[in-house]
């Protein structure tokens, strides 16, 4: 059979080999030289305590140091697999520590446990595999100590080491991972919001231009209709020559055609405006000027005053509507974002231009409830002023009146002759900065949102969205931020509370076990006297207590016979005994029995 043929044995043998190569590449691959350097530095840092402890020699008390001939290669393996398989890295560190002591607590291996435990929490998304690994390590340690005849206190030490040297760094790593994900999600959301804000600004400009086109239709269409009417009157005039009558007829027909064409074009624009802006009506009420607007706002409860300078002049329609919208939008925003504050409207008119300024005091109350539209009102207003040839500024108040220090101001200059308008402080670069009450009052990102003062203030719905009494619906980003913050707080709580709870629970278990061991490891004097050297270990074991004491002989005690195994029992239930019994066995029989001094 051809080994390369489909279904042949060669392809089946090649599959495991390919998986092994892919696994090896995943293990050794690093994203950059910086990662290689970081891993090399970590490996060197973990090797230092191993080498230093080995050079210093075995301690007087405690487990022997790790051999660098075993520790250095295993630490290199642990660091090498820590990115692709962090849990395997932890297993290597635990195995390295167990070669030194079954208690898992080793001065030379503890840094490796701390580092790998942290990396497991930092680099693994799922918590269940790590948690199960901790349980398995504790269970394996208990089984190994039972088989080796170790005392239960050794297992308690292993569990404490597992909690503080592995589980606690793991929780810290998970908290660091959660915090990094929260920061990354915040920047991603900010970038998305910035893109959406640019799209919204462009959409608002287009909508404002369509509204202005509607204003042009209202004014220019009216003039064209009058022109057609006058041409029709000339057409039927009895004293007009035939060729003049023909010219008048052509003029009337052209005016009617122009009116119909203008109506069709503006109709299309208004359809698009209705889709984007909710089909809002024309924002200028016929026969209502600035004074009427201010009077209606004052009658509705707004503390507003109007000051005029100069003689009133007849304004071009574009300028008139832009002026009206500046005052209307500014009063809307002041009522919404600075309720209870005084508002002043300054209007100065000259034959060349009209200057208007609307300024409010520093807010004394919280903003009114209701949905916001992201500050697009000022974007559209700035576009309207610009297309009218004017200049506009919105930001901290610059009014000379000290009452308004710290307040907010919207100022516009509208020339009566066409001009090229730009914002006073914000260049038209394709998107608006949107400085507003966010900086001065701590409210939304702009001073205004496209919301009207509401029917209660007498301005109707023409300024945009009407305030409602419904509770604001939290945005998706706010819900996601709240969820992420709740998860981060839970992780931080776990970092401190879980280890303390485990330690407290283990301390209770150890205390109960200590009391139980104290009573169950006492060998009465008469029982001790009945034991004879040479008795079989089975016969002696039947007469001994169920448990041994954890007390050990002092260092100056005569050592036991070579090759023997010794057991220790209490003389009485004294919690700090000065003497204990020592029974040593060899070749299946009791070879020695004596009383030895303890370190207590």
UniProtKB/TrEMBL annotation:
Protein name: histidine kinase
Residue span of region Disordered: 416-457, 537-565
Native species: Streptomyces armeniacus
Origin superkingdom: Bacteria
EC numbers on record: 2.7.13.3
Catalytic activity: ATP + protein L-histidine = ADP + protein N-phospho-L-histidine
SUPFAM superfamilies on file: ATPase domain of HSP90 chaperone/DNA topoisomerase II/histidine kinase
Domain Signal transduction histidine kinase subgroup 3 dimerisation and phosphoacceptor: 208-272
